[in-house]
Amino acid sequence: MPSLEDPSGIRTTLDPGLSHVPVELFRDIITQLHPGNDLGSLRSLCLVSQTLRQEAERRMYGRLSASQPREVALLCELLTREPRLASLVGELTIVTTDVPRIELDEVGVAALVRDD
What we know:
- By secondary structure, this protein is an alpha+beta fold.
- It is 39% helix and 19% strand.
- It contains 5 helices and 6 strands; from the N terminus they run ββαααβααβββ.
- Strands 1-2 form a two-stranded antiparallel ribbon.
- Strand 1 and strand 2 form a beta hairpin.
- Helix 1 (23-30) runs parallel beside helix 3 (50-61).
């Protein structure tokens, strides 16, 4: 059975039987995992096979939020460095204080909105 070693040194055996399981089934299972509560499980799935990695990463990066300046900086750095992961982001929320909100109207025109 082939094996995979990730950068942390963990070796994972790839099960050739997984290739016969429909991707939709994996997707249904993975959507039951919450990135906030099940991040360890999603990371583990990334080591099992390329198919599971794609589905787990889609779940982890599909909806992101950051509120602390350090989180925002790290997130921007990651998404700039890894365009493949950036392409998985469907929703990004950055919550700040004392900064006007930028809202887009139906044609994409930005407006500054103060919450005063």
